[in-house]
Amino acid sequence: MINQPVVKLGIVGVSRDCFPASLTKARLAALMAEVKKAALPEVYDCPVVIENDVDTYKALDWAKENGINAVCMFLGNFGPEGPTTLFVQKFDGPAMVLAAKEEGKANLANDRGDALCGVLNFSYNVGLRRLKVYIPEYPNVTPEEGVKELADFRNIARVVIGVKNLKVIGFGPRPWDFLACNAPIQPMYDLGIEVQENSELDLKKAFDEITSKPGKQAEIEAVAKDMEAELGKGNKYPEIINKMAQLEVTLLDWYDTNKGGSKFAVFANKCWPAWQPIFEFEPCYVNSRLTGRGIPVACEVDLYGALSEYMAECASEKPATLLDINNSVPADVIPAGANLAGADLKDLYMGFHCGNTCSSCMKSCEIKYQLIQARLMSPDITKGTLEGQIAAGKSTMFRIQSNSDSKLVSYIAQGEFLDIDPCSFGGIGIHAIPGFARFYRHVLVGKRFPHHGAYAFDHVGKILFEALRLLGVEDINTPLPTGQLYPGENPFAL
User: Fold this and answer.
1) CA distance 472 to 16
2) Predicted pLDDT of residue 240
3) What was the pLDDT predicted at 287?
4) CA atoms within 13 A on the CB side of 152
5) What share of the chain is helix, strand, coil (3-state, %, to 5)?
6) How many CA atoms lie within 13 A of 219 on its CB side?
7) What pTM was computed for the model?
8) Phi/psi at 140 (5° precision)
9) Measured between alpha carbons, how far is residue 173 from residues 67, 167, 193, 258, 376 in Å?
10) What values do phi and psi take at 481, rounded to 5?
11) With bands split at pLDDT 50, 70 and 90, how would you rate the model's confidence at 17?
């Protein structure tokens, strides 16, 4: 997928002066041997072992010269907490800590590293410097365990680096009937995100002019052929293929020419009701294709929806989607004996949108016209939705959002899309999250989240949770087990 950071992870060994540096070097070498065995990409060990703050600056120079954008501070022994945390403070990127377990009783007489103690002092000094550092649940590791933690951290770091180098591009004012998408954007700037808001007239002008740019007409024709190949028999309205290809090329051109100093960009675009009479087709299929490549295009100018999709894609390295948390599931839709993935009927709901989910994430799909909008306007101008059943499999529902007080809030819930026919229209799937009914009432409704949720097509709750913490988001909500009350939940109502 394009539009995502490549994480270059540096491992920096540290050694306290009253411990032999050779202990850290040997343990770092053992860790790197396991990294190579596991074929973990883009992981490098620093040749400088930090024993004092002069070493800190030498290690920082190494990181800068080698393009290291995420770091693991490796305590091969107790470690000098001052120079170690100074590196984290001066380093421009996400950081974690790991510490070496003692290998066996033969080492305890003279080669004990005391790294449990070192992590405590490291954590204290991180607090003094007001730093955000990823500390795993079990930071003291064998080399084999360390590789697993490094693999997780690479995914966490990808999300954090992506967010801090992102531009969110919007087209059109947020719709009157979707005031839920109108959230303060100050927290985006606080995260380091750039925001570029445009009129949909800017997009129409760019759309009309794209064919006159050198080489773009040939590019449009190539995209149209690619669309035809992707859709196959699902290409029900071939008369709009060229228009959709023209929009895709227009958005990609805007991406290239407006990304500016940011490394990555996403879109949040107006898609109704003025869109259809002006463009005379739906943008949904185009949105699905760009999102499938790593450039999410959120519906209804949902800026935080685009950000949420992007974070889900960085966490999973797969396409994501944005869906309405839409409607309940009647009992007669569920076949007898169906596997509900640990959920009750009341915990099922349908995730729906007009047709913006990538074809690779669908069980089956085809181009249709948008039924709801066709009630208000001619069906001929609402063609272009990619409709069908969302493929069954693991999922993570996720949202990062500013509340009305400009405070970031978030939720994460892992579940599954079920292989059950939703018996309805749009890009749609039956989603199961154990305990969702209570989660819906006391988190989604209780904390006033909007109707859009982003969906990663994998279980990446751990990755997103830790990325949010590194980004400074403190209000992170997850489903609670039976017997544990949500704040304000009425125990007598259960």
Assistant:
1) 30
2) 97
3) 97
4) 22
5) 45, 20, 35
6) 15
7) 0.96
8) -95, 115
9) 39, 17, 19, 19, 20
10) -70, 160
11) confident
